[in-house]
Amino acid sequence: MKSFLKFMICALLFLQACKKDVQNSSELSVSGFGAVAFASGDAISVYGSGFDPLADNNTVLFNGVKGEVATATPNRLQVIAPVLVSSGKITVTVHGKSVTCAQSYTIVNVLQGTYNDNFILTADKKYLLRGDVVFNSKLSVEPGTIIYGEKATHGSLTAKDIDFSGSADKPIIFTSDQPAGSRFPGDWKGVIIGAENPNNTGTQVPNGIFQYVRIEYAGYHNATGAGSGLNINLTPGSIYKYIQVSYSSGAGITMTALNGGFINHIIAFGCLADDFRVSGTAIKAQFGLGLKDPYFADSFYKGNGITTVGTTNNQFSNFTLVGYNPDARNILNLGPTVNSDAGSGILLGNAFSPKGEQLYASDFIAIYNSVIAASWQSGVAIVSSQNTNLNNYENEGGYARIFIRNCFFAGTSPAQLPVRGGMFGRIDEKSVKGGFITDGIQPKRVIFGQVNDTTKVLSFSQQKDDLGINGLADYSHLNDPTLLPANGSILLKGAIFPSGSDADSPFFDKNVVYIGAFGTEDWTKNWSSFNPQDNKY
């Protein structure tokens, strides 16, 4: 009996020792926490190791203010944030040991629901969009204001009477509430700028000013929807300029208009779907950059530079669109996440088809002085039906009036078909080598270059078109692209705005001499960012 009791005592001591060893098996560490932007009372997940599974044995301080630990595991604490007045650091204490997380948190003012009174967002505070947030009256946002979209609720902002007057040194920033290094396309929905149409008169009220604004990691949508980082209804008399949308899981910028609008100096960077999606009437756009990340690409006909759907009389000038083509982007050792079936430079119509069979297009569009480089499916995909009325696109009296003038197509795959779809996709009916005849008066001014200096291996027999944009197209420089063409580039001169043409618009700056989005001055300086993943806000 004494031997049995001795055995039991030893066993209990052994078990207690084992339990103690398990408890201390991991060194205390705090690797980070979920959202970096939150409000008092929010439930925050703190991650790390060495936590006590008993919640009360863990102490969590927010800048020295104690939070309530609701649940605990060895690697995760669920903590209710206390009443806080300042941003700062989180410190966890377990059994006398304390560790402070290197990551900082930001205290925000939560925006949620519908607001019917005039509202001002000031730069001395930070804001969180919780769910769908709607402003029915005027919304003003000060320069330098930072607004987070909440991932958990797929936050969004909708407004129609706006004054978003950012500046080059103090842009307005919309971004994900996730920490640097953990943001992902589609963390939140995005920004919607609507338009007021009183009594359905067809005359829209100008919606105001939208300038020097960045939108990052938006575009959330369900499987059957179409997301967009920025969905904007352009109105005459409003100001839209210096806008960047980065890593949207849908389109970058979706532009619609009932009776026209002018937008300029716009960037779509790393967006999965179309860089610029266009529908509506009389939109004028000048100076635009679309730069794709081949490792984030929608499939098939999605992921284009410009896509038009049901448009009438829209004009674009001075755009540079850089697509997914891995050869032209100098990507070696393609990984499995590179999408090899994505994107045309420009998609005219509602869908993509190499032959355009049983499809339809009614898009009247003019594109001038632009560069379409590194497209994968084609430089231009034209959607149409086999109706014989569509055989002659270049005639103004035809059903689809498409003007593409003074543009360069380079690094396009397949090289022999920089234009695909509709009748232009059939060599026996319309040779693409001659380009478009646009008005019967001006000469053909479209150059379909097969390769350029961005191509890794020059294996084609055609003359090389050296556009001087290697630093822009090279994937290894994605986060610090060289935006300006190289000295001596043929893009630095030769822009045309023919009198009497669609390009001869009072909205366009016709003093520019360069082709593409950039000449000798970088208009993205200070306010834009090509490395949004690492930005700390």
UniProtKB/TrEMBL annotation:
Record domain IPT/TIG: where: 39-100
Cross-referenced InterPro entries: Ig-like_fold, Ig_E-set, IPT_dom
PROSITE patterns: PROKAR_LIPOPROTEIN
SUPFAM superfamilies assigned: E set domains
Protein name per Swiss-Prot or TrEMBL: IPT/TIG domain-containing protein
Lineage: Bacteria, Pseudomonadati, Bacteroidota, Sphingobacteriia, Sphingobacteriales
